[in-house]
Specification:
mainly alpha; 2 domains; 3 helices; 2 strands; about 120 residues
């Protein structure tokens, strides 16, 4: 198995190179004839879309509030389900759920790394 630190460093280097290439790409786009004009039109259209969405949300009133409440409830329950699945896995038990159509679902575990505020001290 490869060294985790080595793979992590390779990912960081690739992301750094991607960032530089993405900047070159954006610069090249702004140098074209139509791109800046089209980008401005898209911004205007997004703003208009947002105004329409806000208007419809206000018209829906309580129904839209219910939608937002349900979204929050689903997010909280998904987090709870994740916590239960991890606890069940750590207990050595099988982790799966079944829907109303008898379809079985098994978890997909993802590991992500988050930067901490600590700086690792050099070891001598």
């Amino acid at each position: 198995m490869q060294d985790m630190q080595k793979v992590f460093s390779e990912i960081r280097e690739a992301k750094k190179e991607m960032k530089e290439l993405r900047a070159q790409y954006k610069d090249a786009l702004t140098q074209t004839d139509k791109y800046p004009e089209l980008a401005d039109k898209m911004t205007e259209m997004r703003e208009e879309k947002k105004r329409i969405e806000t208007k419809v949300q206000q018209q829906m009133g309580k129904a839209y509030e219910k939608l937002e409440d349900l979204k929050s409830e689903v997010a909280a329950n998904e987090e709870l389900l994740n916590d239960i699945a991890i606890t069940t896995l750590m207990d050595g038990k099988t982790v799966e759920v079944v829907d109303e159509f008898k379809n079985r679902y098994e978890p997909v575990y993802v590991v992500k790394f988050k930067k901490t505020n600590e700086i690792q001290k050099e070891e001598a």
